[in-house]
Amino acid sequence: MLLLPWLYRPNIGIFALICITSQLTLFLFFKQTFWAEKFPYLYLFALNLLSLVQFWICQKKYTALRFIFIAWFAVISITGMIQFLSSENLPYLISAFFLGIIAFYYFFNKDDQLCASLMAAVLGVTATIWLVDGINQLFKDSNEFIFLLIAGIIFTWFALISYFLIKIFRQSRFYIIPLAIGAWLAGLALAAFTLVFWETISLIIGIIFVAVAITLLIKSQSYFIRQFAYCLFVSGQTAFLFHLGSETDQILWVLIAQIFILCISYFLKPHWFFILIQMLATYGIAVIYLLQMDHSLWSLNSTQTYLNLVLLNYLVFSSVLLIGSKAVVSYKRSTFLCTLVVILGSSFFDTFIGLALVDSADQSLWLLYALPCVWLLCFSFFYLYRQLHGITFFAFLVFGILLIALGYFEVFILFVILTWALKNKDRIVYGVTLVVFAFVLWQLYYSLQLSFLAKSASILVSGIILLALYGLLMKEAKINCIEGEK
């Protein structure tokens, strides 16, 4: 009903909302009526049919959403395979491959090599789940070596998928997508093998694996060899860190080792996704270490623990200030995506902990305002002051100060990342930023201790402020354009 007033404005946003609400309506209809019990597979049929119709409309009018539908088909495919393995009902098996095969065939006919490779990877992951379950059934008594067998089969299976893509797309460079996914999955299985079978010796084995991986990454430029090296690196790193923590019983040593591994990874100049994984692993281990410092892993009501987490978050946020330096120029995407994940986590902590801490009388809470002030000052000096002039500069500075006073400074950082993504046309960072933006604003809206009318007024005021900032930016752009012509 809320979408009805917008139906006369056909655009990509409204189509996306209609797709989401129609899927939700279909689910709730079967969930709240007798149809789900009386006809258990009818919902499965309706889900695939509705998704197929939406995909057809998307390809006709809104092709920019095709990656969203690939992700949605992946969810349906993997969920269908898991349900098939748990119940062994044929309709679930059909659902696991139906949409994926149709989408792959469509992209193949349109010569969309990227989307076809992504769908091939999705089908490969779905089939891998089936293969792993079959291996578990065949080798129930060989628990020690089953992970090694799974790792080998996974890597071989995805290598065959990549070989198939090379054959059908002669000049494609996207065949590495299934190979990369297979390398990561095989790496996890190999890491599990080192943890289960070699136990304490995994410390040494992990170091050997990482050393071999570093050698391969330095000397080889082959995509296949490099993905195999990533596989060895991940498995060796996981085994080494796990047993280092078990032997020392100190997360601090694990954190130091992970920071060292992150530094090594940077000098190897690997893919940006590999650096992102290492950054997130370092941040995750650091969070666990800070939580353990309070002598209780989940003692989240401690003011000191919360302040430690805030300090850690702003240490990550400070990496955004380094995007202009040559040191991180190759990994701007990794830096921004890591920052977005941290903002998402800090938004969660602020919703469930931050409000209670702000209301407390602890004198150390001045840090919550000092850190964003320092960040804003540095950003203004290094970037805003050089690019904006006069009233536009002061308007954005006041906007940042206002967000600091309200305790929502992460929103300003999101604006910075979104601006960079739009300027550099980075679709990955742009898409993830929009998702994080929506989640953060949703949490802020529902955490406001105000009436519905006051919340609506706050949204209106926010919109007016953003519109005014947009007008100032457009005026600044016109002035710069005129000066450039002169």
From TrEMBL:
InterPro entries: DUF4401. Residues 179-474 form the DUF4401 domain. Keywords: Membrane, Transmembrane, Transmembrane helix. The chain crosses the membrane at residues 12-29, 41-58, 65-84, 90-108, 115-133, 145-166, 173-195, 201-218, 227-245, 251-268, 273-293, 305-324, 336-358, 364-385, 392-422, 428-445, 452-473. The keyword Transmembrane applies. The keyword Membrane applies. It comes from the Bacteria. This is DUF4401 domain-containing protein. It comes from Acinetobacter baumannii NIPH 80.
